[in-house]
Amino acid sequence: METADTNLGGPQEPRLQSEESRLGSDESRMRSMGPLISWESELTSIQHSLKFVLKLKEEFVCPVCRGVVLNPQQNSCGHIYCFHCLQGLLESSSSSSPVCPVEGAAITPAEVFQDNCCKREISSLEVYCTNSPECTSVLTLNHLQDHLKLCQYEQMQCTNPDCTTVLQRRDLQDHLTNTCPHRQEPCPHCSQVLQLSLVQDHVQSSCLEVEVDCPDGCSLNVPRHKLPEHRETCPEVHTDCSYKRFGCSVQGKRGKVKLHEDTAVNHHMLLVLRSNTHLEQQVEVLQEEAQLRRREVQTGSLLLPGLEKQICPLLQQSNNNEHVVSTAQRTLSRQDDVLSSVQVDVRQVSRGLGPTLEELDQLRQSLDAVMQEVSTAEALKEHLGTLEENLKRHSGLLDLHAAQLNLNKQHLQELEATSYDGRLIWKIQDFKKRREAEVKGQSPCLSSVPFHIGRCGYKMAMKAYLNGDGEGRGSHLSLYVVLMPGDFDALLQWPFRQTVSLSVLDQSGASNHRILSFRPDPTTKCFQQPAPESVSNVAVGFPCFIPLNLLENSPNAAYVKDDTLFVKAKVDMTGLEQL
C-alpha cells in the first residue's frame, strides 16, 4: 500500500508495513506530503463558499474539487492541486499510477512538489467575510480565520449551561447578562447567586431573609430565620395560663390567655389563697407530729433512772467475768510454754531430716518448672499453628486485593486517557531508559492506551519501538496503529477505510512536526473486524518512521525534550457516519 510522502521530493522514503508483511515483504513504499498549515486546514470546510473580491484565476482553481487551491502541490504537467485532493488521488489509485483529471498525464509522487510561490499568491488574495453582507470586511485569505474569531456577525452558541440559543457574537454579551433564561442572577433578598430559573423557588422556599407570614396566623411578616424567635411572643400560639400550677386550667392562643390573665385576677387570687390555705394545714399537721415526738422524748427521760438501777448488777457481773478471764489467760500462758518446748523438739528432729527434705523440695520445684515449660510449649505450638493458618488466609486475601487494585488502577488510567474524537497524543517518558531496555531485549514494544473514533466507533491503539523494528531496528523509530475489538464492532462498517496520520511532535514551539499518513488497504486482514476473543489485529505502520539520530538531535526541532517524547495518532473522520 502506498500513500503520499509528507516531504515530496525529500531524501527519505518511509515504508508502511503491517507487522505481518514486514517479516517477508518490502513492496509497499509511501511518500507523504506536508501537512496543511493551520489557516489552510481551517478553511477546508468553507473552501467552496468563499467570495473573492476579484474573480478567481483559473490557475488557482483545483481541477479536482473546483475550489480555491489550499496548500498547492504541483505535478510535472504543471497543474496545481489541493494537498488533500492530490492525496485522495494517490490513495484511490493503489494498483496503478493516478492521472491528471485535466490532461490525463500520469502523476508521479516523486515529481510532485509544494508550490510555495503559488501558496504566497493565494494567501494574499482578498476575500469578503463569510458573514457578508452584514459584515463588510475585506481580508486576505490567510487572515480570514483570524477575522472570523473576532467577527461580530459570526454565529455563536450561548455559553450558559443548558442554553442552546445561537446568535451573533455582537449580541452574545447582552444575551448572557440580560436576556438568557439560564443566566446567573443574585437573590434580591440574600444576594446569593443562582440560575435565574431557580431564583423564584429559592425565594419561595429557602431564602432566610425573605419575610413570610406567621405560620400561626398573626398579622406580622417575619424574616424566615426569625420564625423560632417570633413564636416565643406570637399572640396566636397556643399556651397555658401562667397560674396553671395553682389550678387554673385555661388554654388557648397567647393573646386570649393574656387577656384572661388580666381579667381573671380575682379568680387567680382565690386560687393562690386556696393553695396557701392548703399549705398552712400541712404546716399544722407537721407541728402536731413534732409535739408528739417531743412528748416521747420526755417520757424516755423519766424511764432513764430505772434503767440505770438495772445496769448496776450487770456491771458487777461483768467484773466477775473479768476475773475468770484473767485466770484463763494465766492458764493459756502455761500452755504456751509447753508448746514452745515441743517446737524445740521438732526443730531438733527436722535438723536430722534437713538434707533429704531439701532435695525432695528441689525435685518438686524442678518437676513443677518442667511441667510448666511443657504446658507453655504446647500452648505456643497451638498458637503458632493458628497464626500460620491466619497468615495463609490473609496472604491469599492480600494477593486478591492487590490484583484487583492493579486492575482498577489500569482501568482508571485507560478511562482518564481515553478519547473519542479519533485522536490520541501519547506521552512517552523516560525515553533513554526505555530505549536502552529495548536495546537489551527487554520489553521491545510499547503500547498506548486505547482511543476511539467516535463515542460508539472503532477502537484503536498505538505501538512504538523506540529502538526500531524490522528493517528499522537500531536506526529508526517505528510507529504502528492496531485495531482492537470494540463494544460496537457489530454495528460498524468493515473493512476499516479511514485515513490515519501518525506524528512525532516538535516541542520547540516551531511546529516542525514529523507526520506520515496512510489509507488502509481493505484487502488485508489488518483492517477487517477483529475477532472478539483476540487482543487485537496485526499492527500497521512505519518501521522506518524517523531516524534515531534525527529524533534526538534535529537542528530544526526538539522531538525529545526532558527525556520525553510526544507521539500523536489522528484518524480522518470525514464521511464516517456516527452511530
List keywords for this structure.
579 residues; alpha+beta; Herpes Virus-1; 6-stranded antiparallel sheet; 5-stranded antiparallel sheet; 24 strands
Task: Describe the protein.
There is one protein chain. The longest helix has 153 residues, at 265-417. The protein contains eleven helices and 24 strands. Among the domains are: 33-148, Herpes Virus-1, CATH 3.30.40.10; 423-571, Sandwich (Apoptosis, Tumor Necrosis Factor Receptor Associated Protein 2, Chain A), CATH 2.60.210. With 579 residues, the protein is of the alpha+beta class. Helices cover 40% and strands 16% of the residues.
CATH level-four homologous superfamily name of the domain at 423-571: Apoptosis, Tumor Necrosis Factor Receptor Associated Protein 2, Chain A
The residue ranges in which pLDDT falls below 50 over 5 or more consecutive positions are 1-14, 19-36
Which overall shape is indicated by the principal axes computed on the Cα atoms?
A: flat
Strands, count: 24
**Which bin fits the share of residues in helices?**
40-55%
Our estimate of the beta-strand percent is: 15-25%
Biggest beta-sheet profile: 6 strands, antiparallel
Q: What structural class should be given to the helix and strand makeup?
A: alpha+beta
Please tally the helical runs, counting DSSP H or I stretches of 4 or more residues: 11
Instruction: Compute the CA-based radius of gyration.
Output: 52 Å
Do you know the CATH topology of the domain at 423-571? Answer: Apoptosis, Tumor Necrosis Factor Receptor Associated Protein 2, Chain A
**First-to-last CA distance:** 29 Å
In the CATH hierarchy, what is the architecture of the domain at 423-571 at level 2? Sandwich
Mean pLDDT: 81
Instruction: Please give the CATH class of the domain at 423-571.
Output: Mainly Beta
